[in-house]
């Protein structure tokens, strides 16, 4: 696809984080003009009553107001706004979508887990200039779900699986301050992820697989492994994280109270509170696939959403 002179924007209304990207696509690649993110925790408590909390919705709408100001400044020709797991599941998501739509004056697509996974893969592949030769498994651990995409080759057919393992729900259920049920957490992760790998025709394979992690959990793990005092996308992108390092990070973080994890300088707002279960997802996956390392991508779903806005415009 040829990209003509164009400013495009993508917005990801995630279960934990809302993110905005505005980029100039005129040179055939993405030149970032604005990138914003804010922790909203839209999916907080969703497991208990199936409803979005009013305070989370209000926080989300305030963030959307700030996003709209950025959009008004850049006036992108193409824009796509996508909601994910929390907005798929909540019984009152229509109320939030109506309020958000009035602010943004744009349609909001609540996408399936399968489309979310495909957009993540497109965003990851756009972020790497070198080709991948081996089969790859893309893992995007989100606030409300985890998306898995397996590709025998980057240009070939893909198999996609979305599983209901999100860091918000797992934190609330297994890692509450009053109770750390790590045995039950690992048991759930192993059972659910092994089933997903079987559906992807990966569980019985001994072939090498390049595991790529994208999203806030993966990039936070890389930032911690790099001992960054502030997040640096250029250092995080492409970082190879060994499973032994991941295991050490896990033991270090799980021993800290949530407020101390949140205070780590390279993490986003509130990320430390929900990071441990996301780390455990990656650790269990690496063990199931008998792999000792993974690669981290700073690009993913948000970039995929933006790129898909160009396809929509051309359709």
CATH architecture of the largest domain: 2-Layer Sandwich
Largest sheet: 6 strands, mixed
Give me the number of helical elements.
13
Order of helices and strands: EEEHHEHHEHEEEHEEHEHHEHHHEH
Strand order of the largest sheet: 8-7-6-11-13-12
**Which structural class fits the helix and strand makeup?**
alpha/beta
- CATH C-level of the largest domain: Alpha Beta
Number of domains: 2
Percentage of residues assigned to helices: 40-55%
CATH homologous group name of the largest domain: Exopolyphosphatase. Domain 2
* Total beta-strand segments: 13
Ends apart, CA distance between termini:
12 Å
Poorly predicted parts = none
CATH T-level topology of the largest domain: Nucleotidyltransferase, domain 5
Strand content: 15-25%
Average pLDDT level: 90
Any idea what the shape is? globular
Compute the gyration radius: what is it?
A: 19 Å
Description:
The termini are close together. Helix content is 46%, strand content 22%. The chain has 315 residues and is of the alpha/beta class. α2 packs parallel to α4, α6 packs across α12 and α8 crosses α12. It contains 13 helices and 13 strands. The protein has 2 domains: 117 residues, Nucleotidyltransferase, domain 5; 169 residues, 2-Layer Sandwich (Nucleotidyltransferase, domain 5). β6 and β7 form a beta hairpin. The strands form 3 sheets. It has a 6-stranded mixed beta sheet with strand order 8-7-6-11-13-12, with helices on both faces.
